[in-house]
Amino acid sequence: MRHYTPGPVTRPSVQPLLLALHLLLAAAPGLAAGADMSAARTGGGSKVGPETCKACHPAAYEVWRNGPHARSLDGLPAQNRNDPRCLSCHSPDADDGISAITCEACHGPGRIYSAPYVMRDAELARALGLVDPGEKSCLACHGESAPSLVRFEYAKKLLLIDHWTRERAAQAAVAKPEAAPPARGK
Hints:
The chain is mainly α. The chain has 11 helices and no strands. Residues 30-43 have low confidence and may be disordered.
């Protein structure tokens, strides 16, 4: 007579369930009749706008505000400011009521991932749509087909929009205040 040995017990992964729960919780405020102010500012779309990002990332916001992406519409002649071919790069979120090239043009729509409890968990934020843009993202607008007189050099242009170095330094200073200097003995 053969002896029966059952195989290992397998349980389904809870990660998809947790992701679904986070999506539901993040979407719940938007489902209410009185959706938040960022939804009103952006026409109720999936974008929250740069002012929402500023609340947690003030240093990055200041770099962006003074950088070339915040002034992207300034370089367009008046007759091109309503041309969809131009706006697709110079103001990609115009349909959501957001002018210029903002955080979400590069980092993805923030309606779901912008909640503070999500942003504290980098893996969860990425799972919910936060994008870490790279050269390929930039080339969507700064590629060969762009009507630019100067060839786009990623490494050089990246320095013009570097908002993460200052932001991370500011976060590190808050997380780890400077220690008091050691007391001198007499």
